[in-house]
Amino acid sequence: MQPTGTVRSSVINLVKTIVGAGLLAIPYAFKSDGVLVGVLLILLAAITSGFGLFVLGKCSKTLIDPRDSSFFSLCMLTYPSLSPLFDLAMITQCFGVGLSYLVLIGDVFPGLFGGQRDWWIVGSSLVVVPLCLLKKLDSLKYSSIIGLFALAYLSLLILSTFVYEYSSGRYEEVRGDISWWSVYDYKGLMSTFSIIIFAYTGSMNLFSIVNELRNNTMTNITAVVNRSIAIATVFFIAVALAGYLTFGSNTLGNIMLNYDDTSIYVHIGKFCLGSMVVLTFPLLFHPCRIAVNNLCVWAQLQREKRAESHQECEPLNPNTPSSVRPISLSVQDSDSRSLVNSYGATQGNEEIEDLEVAGNGSPHVNIPDGRFYIITALLLIAMYALALNVNSFATVLAFVGATGSTSISFTLPGLFGYKLIGTDYLAAGQVIPSLEVFYKRCSFLLTWFGLGVMFLSLYVIYTNGAG
Question: Where are the transmembrane segments (predicted)?
């Protein structure tokens, strides 16, 4: 398939991936954090998440074909033995959040239009399934545009209510205490910290965006990341400030629950929330399907390796075509492209030298049509079946965020960046530029930041469960 993505369409899809229903929980985080600390935490999340996306884009350039980038290809190149664990983290994150969206559909629409919860969940498949059958992420740009309009309405509703309450003087009737400079609740700060950090999760679709950009230069990738993070940050800060300054310490976990349920504008807002969730689901399903396929390919590779180990004493037939080739990095010179395994050349890593993947010399794994539809069907059936039988799984979802989200947003990008950034210069016999060294060291710090966020989040989950 020819790449069709533009910077604009890529920004639309990445913003819609990042800004989801979690936007409505950000004002609740300010309830504990206060305005100053809350804004600082949003900026911290924006910088760290944005740098993680930038590092993933930069690492994609170390492959023979940057359009064949994926978490799987980079894992097989750097930490092949851990590849299935990383794909499991991706599946856990996307499956868990997607499942929560289906449950939210069953909670929102019956209150608006009546009917049974289960029928609304099943009915959402009329929109969800066709979108999930699209093979290219760029094909979802039109549904993402509609989702962004829904987000815009929700944001305007929250902002306009804030302006109206202050201009009319009615805010004193609904607003609790406001904390501008100090933390209002230190115990709540630990719990809400993860809300803000996880709100920026969008790395699951970064590689699809890189692969589908018509001109996927590092300049364009950086532009997509910077613009997406900037737009998401504007959404988060505006909604957080307007929502929190309207209700103060009375702010609820979902800001929409604070508004008059009889208002037609609130009903439209809830409809926009439900529509946004329906249209965001395919953006989470797309990387989940890729990760499941990667596990299938990894299992196939292990079977092939075991079969080869049993036959290693037998003479090889030079006429037998091989379906696998080593993963290599690329070095571009003025005359031609030479394929170099930089780890084998510079570090003598035999594990990397012997690494093989299916395909025509590419580390990227395409999904055959048959497997594409089988994986799609099995995942959708599993997610809808669980959504119909589970009303709440807040603890499970919190665990998913603590492990899956931190892995794909911070830990994995940091590990990839620390091991891959600068290797193309070494393979070409050049000195790594100081800026590349800086990115490499920051990647190392990003890994530890991700581990710190994960352990802090798991601690909060444990203490809340024990309490």
Answer: 12-30, 36-56, 77-105, 117-134, 146-166, 186-207, 228-247, 267-285, 372-390, 396-421, 442-462
CATH number at residue 245: 1.20.1740
- Phi-psi group of 75: left, alpha or beta (phi > 0 → left; psi -120 to 50 → alpha; rest → beta): alpha
Q: Is residue 204 included in any domain, yes or no?
A: yes
Question: How wide is the angle at C-alpha 405 spanned by C-alphas 403 and 407, nearest 5°?
Answer: 65
CB 59 within 8 A of CB 74: yes
Buried b (16+ CB within 10 A) or exposed e, 123-144: ebeeebeebbeeebbbbbbebb
In a domain, 54, yes or no: yes
Cα(284)–Cα(97) distance, integer angstroms: 8
Number of structural domains (the chain) is 1
pLDDT digits over 262-299, tens only?
889 989 988 998 888 898 899 889 989 988 998 888 88
Grouping H, G, I as helix, E, B as strand and the rest as coil, residue 115 is coil
Overall residue count recorded for the chain in this entry: 467
- The pLDDT tens digits for 165-200 are 887 777 666 777 788 887 777 777 777 788 888 888
Task: Give whole-number Cα distances, 59 to 8, 149, 198, 200, 416, in Å.
Answer: 22, 33, 22, 20, 7
Q: For residues 38 and 32, what is the distance between their CA atoms, to the nearest angstrom?
A: 8
Tell me the helix, strand and coil percentages in the chain, rounded to 5: 75, 5, 20
Model confidence over 86-105: pLDDT tens digits?
888 888 888 888 888 888 88
CA dihedral 420, 426, 432, 435 (to 10 degrees): -20
Would you say residue 2 lies in a domain?
Answer: no
How far apart CA 146 and CA 15 sit, in angstroms, is 12
Residue 135 or 442, more confident: 442
178, part of any domain:
yes
Residue that is written with structure tokens 């807002």 in the block: 269
Q: Which domain, by its residues, includes 110?
A: 7-304+331-358+366-466
pLDDT reported for residue 349: 39
